[in-house]
Amino acid sequence: MSYGGIILSITAPDRDSVFDDVVLGYATLEDYLEDSAYMGALIGRYANRIANGRFALDGVTYTLPRNDGTSHLHGGPHGFHSVCWDVELFEARDHAGAVLRHTSPDGDSGYPGTLLVQVTYTLSADNSLTVDYHATTDRATPLNLTQHSYFNLAGQASNDVLRHQLTLRASRFTPVDASLIPLGTIVPVRDTPFDFARPRAVGARFGATDEQLRRGRGYDHNFVIDRDGGQILALAAELHDPASGRTLHLYTTEPGVQFYSGNHLGAGPVGKQGRCYAPHSGLALETQHFPDSPNQPDFPSTILRPGAVLHSRSVYRFTIQPPG
User: Fold this and answer.
1) Among 88, 7, 77, 78, which residue's Cα sits nearest to residue 42?
2) What residues form DSSP beta bridges with 115?
3) Were both Cys, which of 24, 84, 134, 232 would link to 118 (CB 3.0–4.6 Å)?
4) Dihedral sign computed on CA atoms, order 147, 257, 298, 178
5) Distance of alpha carbon 156 from alpha carbon 244, whole angstroms
6) Quick one: which of 40, 303, 266, 2 has its CA closest to 146?
7) Is residue 278, in this structure, part of any structural domain at all?
8) CATH code, domain carrying 292
9) Kind of pairing, strands 220-224 and 234-240?
10) Residue 240 maps to a domain
11) pLDDT tens per residue across span 199-232
C-alpha cells in the first residue's frame, strides 16, 4: 500500500500446500489510520527510540517530537509510516515488486537535511521477499530504516505465537532502562532468557525472574547479529511454526535486529477476517542499527552525510519443514 509503504499480506503454504496469510493487518485504510502498532509499515527516519527526543550532531542539538513517554519512537507521530510513498511496479520472468520513493524535507519532524529515500520490495521465485533501502541527504542526519511487519506463521487469524520456535544468530544484546532506552552496554545472552542460539519457544521463559523481561513486558530488545569474517548479508533469525511447518529465514546487512514479541498488541482496530488481536498475536523482527545510537558513542554510527549513499538489504525467505 502506498500509505506507509505497508505490507498488507504475505501468503505462504504449509506442509500440506495450504496457503494462509502470515502477517497481521487490517481490512480498511481507515483502520490503518487508527493503528498505533506500526502494522506492516516502513519506519523512518529513525527506527526504534531516541532518548528524550534529542540528539547532538556536529555541535548542534536537535529536538524531535516525543511520542513514547519521554522518547522519540519510529520517527515520531508523522514518520515514514504515515506518508504516502510514490510507487512504481515492475515485473520480470522470475521476480516482481515495487519501488517506493519519498522525499523527506529539511526539518521534517526535527531532523536536518533533505533526505531522498527509495525502498524496493522484490518477490522472487525462490519464495523470498527482499527489501532494499537506499537514501541520500544534503546535510548530515541520523538514519535508521526498517520494516515493521508482525508475523504469525500459523496464519494471522490463529492464536498467539508463543509456541513458535525462534533462533537468533546473536550472542549479545543491548539491555535497556525502564524507558526501553539502551544502557550503552553490549552484554552476552548466555545463561539468560535472551539466549536463542538454539531454537526455543517464544514464550517459554516469559515467567522467568528477569529485570529485562519485566521492563519490556516480554521481549522488546535489540540483538547484535553475529557475523563470520567479512560476511555482509548474514542470517539473523529463523522462526518456525511446528504446527504448519512454515519457517521464516531472515537475512540482513544490518548490525542488529529488534525482537518484539507483540507485548502491547490489542489496542488497535479489529484485524483482517474479524481477528481480534491480543498481546503476542504476532511478533516483529526489525532489522536495524541500534536504538538511540545518536546518543550512544560506542554503538555503530547511524549518521548519513552528503555524498554517501545508504544501502541496506533484508531478505525474508519462506520454507517448509517436515514434522518432527
Assistant:
1) 7
2) 104, 137
3) 134
4) positive
5) 13
6) 40
7) yes
8) 2.70.98.10
9) unpaired
10) yes
11) 999 999 999 999 999 999 999 999 999 998 777 9
